[in-house]
Design a protein that fits this description.
Largest sheet: 6 strands, mixed
Helix content: 25-40%
Distance between the termini: 43 Å
CATH architecture of the largest domain: 3-Layer(aba) Sandwich
CATH superfamily of the largest domain: P-loop containing nucleotide triphosphate hydrolases
Structural class: alpha/beta
CATH topology of the largest domain: Rossmann fold
Number of helices: 10
Shape: globular
Radius of gyration: 22 Å
Number of strands: 14
Bound molecules: adenosine-5'-triphosphate
């Protein structure tokens, strides 16, 4: 039977008269990375703060590894790691001293071996004896993640983890988080405003609006179920010959000299380019429509129109 490491069940929260979280429910599958998306003020941070038990819900429950944060709070939150606000790292201490400090603070029994393990996981071994004030922002982010992983949580929640990182920092963090999910089976919930980043990082995205889940969007092909069709644009010459080849791959047409090809798999793009090149076609560029961006705007704007 499939188990869900995190289940959010009909959460409600009001601040004064403002009902900001309305019957919010969703569940996360093990080892998958979920984006948590929504416009400013839609309730992402409030939901996350309830999940990690920083604030209480008015009604509803959160189950972490099947344990309720209401009735088994300690057990439940022992399975969760989170960076909600900036982690309080100590700049004048080394990375290793920071980890040792947080290991002592942790309620679980964090061994020296575990400290070494998380250091290797976030690839900070070489920097462990440097003072944290000399770390780059990306290194600080990774040290923050190492701290949140010390007690071996099965669910990791990150609020805007790529904020302020440069492109290399973003790519390194993405690779690392994907390894954590695929190799260690950690389940991730990542809030971000960067739709492109969520699209390449996550398996799925939970889209919320005004405190309610409006949809869950899949970014990958799920067990044989095709994703919604994506539109690949290809610039190649000679264009007629290229079109004839591409027509064997799916619906293909030409608009203003650019070929549009319908595909269901992101991974088919390199195969198609290779087929064109080996048949003597010169390929000048390819791009594809950002599905998540389309879904996000249609989901979040649709409601605004119907509400008005
Ligand atoms: N402590 C609080 N007291 C009163 N209102 C609050 C409090 N915390 C959040 N809110 C309100 O709840 C709503 C949801 O806020 P929240 O910060 O959860 O949204 P968000 O989706 O994380 O937004 P952003 O993308 O801007 O970070 C907002 O209208 C916000 O003003």
């Amino acid at each position: 039977m499939e188990s869900f490491p995190l289940q959010v069940k009909r959460l409600n929260k009001s601040f004064g008269k403002a009902h900001v979280i309305k019957d919010m429910s969703f569940q996360l599958k093990r080892g998958e990375i979920y984006g948590f998306l929504g416009p400013n003020g839609s309730g992402k941070t409030t939901t996350i703060r309830m999940i990690v038990s920083l604030i209480g819900a008015d009604s509803g429950d959160v189950l972490i590894e099947g344990k309720s944060i209401k009735t088994h709070r300690q057990e439940a939150i022992s399975n969760i790691g989170a960076i909600v606000e900036d982690p309080d790292l100590y700049g004048y201490l080394t990375g290793k001293q920071n980890l040792e400090h947080f290991a002592r603070m942790s309620k679980g029994n964090v061994t020296k071996a575990r400290i070494k393990e998380v250091t290797e996981l976030v690839e900070l071994t070489a920097a462990m004896n440097k003072k944290v004030k000399n770390y780059s922002l990306g290194m600080k982010q990774r040290l923050g993640i190492a701290v949140s992983l010390l007690h071996n949580p099965s669910v990791l929640i990150l609020d805007e983890p790529t904020n302020g990182l440069d492109p290399k920092g973003i790519r390194d963090l993405r690779n690392y988080l994907q390894r954590l999910a695929k190799e260690d089976g950690v389940t991730l919930l990542v809030s971000s405003h960067q739709l492109n980043e969520i699209e390449v990082l996550c398996d799925r995205a939970i889209v919320i609006k005004s405190g309610e889940v409006v949809d869950e969007v899949s970014m990958r092909q799920q067990q044989g179920q095709p994703d919604s069709v994506m539109n690949v644009r290809i610039e190649a010459k000679p264009v007629d010959q290229a079109l004839a080849i591409l027509a064997t791959y799916g619906n293909a047409s030409i608009t203003e000299g650019t070929i549009q090809l319908e595909q269901q798999r992101y991974e088919s793009i390199p195969d198609i380019v290779e087929a064109l090149v080996t048949q003597g076609i010169r390929v000048y560029g390819t791009s594809y429509q950002n599905k998540l961006e389309d879904a996000y705007f249609s989901l979040t704007e649709e409601q605004e129109v119907s509400a008005g």
